[in-house]
Design a protein that fits this description.
The protein has about 425 residues and is an alpha+beta fold. The protein contains 15 helices and 15 strands. It is elongated.
């Protein structure tokens, strides 16, 4: 019986449960691909809350810190931070809560006591979650910072020994030996834009030997257009005594187009800055991973929003964290109205206790995949929904549920009318 007839235009046509399966498989395939990308990323990828508790983390940072993923998730983030910087951690959490974004450097301590430096860029997520979470991405820059320290030390040593040009050159050679085996591409150029140092990584990227680089001008090695439009202005800025960092794309003869993160550091001589130390990091794979992560997220969101069925996600307490457009049209509620609210608004615990018993079984992993139950729309109309339910797991732990719902109200009413006429 139709207790509260609603406008027909607000209803989404019924979709057979069989048609839900391609959507479910596509989401599962995308989720598996996304999980594989995260698991094999060489950067730190994590999720934490505003209390500083890790909720999810990929294996790489756990391995670097000397823990398993399971162990790391049990350790408060504050305890991973180097002791002298722990008072600043509360300020970081405050900035995330107020500004929604934070970037900088973080000193952490491994299980063995080694100190590592991570460069992070974290953002706050409030949409689609019951409570705010922080999405963290960081890169281990320990070796880069050590190289920068060596640069500063070399600069100070050069200034102290400037009376002897031979000593200065020896310092350069010493620095050259230090940076020779580093993964980053490292060069030094003088006031005439000529290379005086080029390490193995830089030469390998260009497919050159030292004799083809040392003593030559940058514009003789780098494409002239790139030198004039980008590189030279940045070098000139550094010759003014400023440390410079920027990103650019560069096409190598054999490697093709690569994304580079480039840092310049001024080296003082007797009359001012007379050399620049340059550190070039190939961040192509990191850029691609970031783009693939964005594409995966956009694909999932588009699939969810354009699906012709209800897609609903509840946290462990039964609170709404995902509610798509079809769900809004069928129930009359918007996601903004229900976000973080309990699903009992539409399915009363007192009136429909069997539904919540099924939810408990779903969380425990003992529920059937399909289930039917009524819901109450915003206008008070009772609609029957056929559900296909699944758990959502992070690192093997159930953290939420996701359900695909098909409105079968008209079918139920037809069955009831048929039964009454028999």
């Amino acid at each position: 019986m139709d207790l509260h007839p609603g406008p027909e235009k607000g209803r989404v046509p019924a979709v057979p449960l069989a048609e839900l399966e391609p959507i479910r498989r596509a989401l599962q395939k995308n989720e598996d691909w996304y999980q594989d990308l995260v698991e094999h990323s060489q950067d730190l990828l994590c999720i934490h809350d505003l209390e500083g508790r890790l909720l999810s983390v990929n294996p790489t940072p756990a391995r670097v810190l000397g823990y398993s993923v399971e162990e790391l998730l049990q350790i408060p983030m504050r305890e991973i931070v180097a002791p002298e910087f722990r008072p600043q951690f509360d300020a970081y959490l405050g900035q995330m809560a107020s500004a929604g974004e934070s970037r900088g450097l973080m000193a952490v301590v491994t299980r063995s006591g080694e100190r590592r430096i991570w460069e992070y860029h974290n953002t706050l997520r409030t949409e689609g979650v019951a409570s705010p979470i922080v999405r963290g991405m960081a890169h281990d820059v320990t070796e880069q910072k050590r190289a920068e320290k060596l640069l500063r030390e070399a600069s100070e040593a050069m200034l102290q020994d400037i009376r002897s040009e031979e000593r200065l050159e020896e310092r350069l050679r010493e620095y050259e030996r230090v940076v020779e085996g580093l993964e980053e591409m490292i060069v030094a150029v003088d006031r005439d834009y000529r290379y005086v140092i080029a390490n193995r990584s830089f030469l390998n990227h260009r497919g050159m030997v030292k004799e083809q680089v040392l003593g030559r001008r940058v514009d003789e090695v780098v494409y002239d257009e790139a030198f004039q439009s980008v590189v030279k202005p940045k070098l000139d800025e550094c010759f003014q005594g400023k440390a410079v960092e920027y990103e650019m794309k560069y096409t190598y003869p054999k490697l093709g187009e690569r994304d580079l993160l480039i840092s310049y550091f001024p080296i003082e001589g007797p009359t001012g800055v007379d050399r620049i130390a340059c550190i070039l990091r190939d961040i192509t794979e990191r850029k691609r991973a970031e783009e693939e992560l964005r594409d995966a997220k956009e694909f999932s969101e588009n699939l969810i929003q354009t699906a012709n069925v209800i897609i609903l996600s509840l946290d462990m307490g039964g609170n709404v964290t995902l509610f798509n457009q079809a769900a809004e049209e069928i129930t009359g509620y918007t996601f903004a109205e229900l976000k973080g609210k309990n699903w009992s608004i539409l399915v009363s615990r007192d009136r429909f206790p069997h539904v919540w018993e099924e939810f408990d079984r779903l969380v425990a992993g003992t529920a059937s995949q399909t289930f039917e139950n009524p819901i109450l729309t915003k206008t008070g109309e009772e609609r029957y929904i056929a559900w296909r339910n699944n758990q959502v797991k992070v690192n093997g732990t159930v953290v939420a549920t996701i359900s695909f719902g098909n409105d079968i109200t008209e079918r139920k009413q037809a069955e009831q009318a048929l039964h009454q006429n028999m």
